[in-house]
Write a structure and sequence with these properties.
The chain has about 110 residues and is mainly alpha-helical. It folds into 2 domains: about 55 residues; about 40 residues. The protein has 3 helices and no strands.
């Protein structure tokens, strides 16, 4: 059973959602608001570019540089693991050969 306080909360909530929707629509329709958002986004982009330029002028890596370095390190790590696996397999194969052949004698393949 729904209490009066629950009905009140629901009514206020629905009115609040409606008012918020109207406010959002009014802001989107307002050319000054759109212009302000556009100017703010452009300023953010210019500030970001200035930050990158400053970092490069100080000979410091940017976030993008560090991301690129991380990707390259992961790639090299994967390649090194492949080399290690190959060496391990070669070592295992070599141990098998040394058990079946005397030292210094290479097996002949037909």
């Amino acid at each position: 059973m729904e209490s009066s306080s629950d009905r009140f909360k629901e009514r206020v909530s629905s009115h609040g959602e409606g008012a918020l929707g109207e406010l959002a629509q009014a802001l989107l329709d307002n050319p000054w608001f759109n212009q302000a958002i556009h100017v703010a986004l452009e300023a953010r982009e210019r500030a970001s570019q200035a930050g990158v330029s400053a970092m490069r002028n100080l000979n410091l890596p940017t976030g993008a540089d560090l991301d690129r370095l991380g990707r390259r390190l992961r790639s090299m790590s994967e390649r090194l693991e492949g080399v290690e696996d190959g060496l391990c397999a070669a070592r295992t194969h070599g141990a098998c050969l040394s058990q079946h052949h005397p030292p210094g004698v290479l097996p002949r393949h037909p």
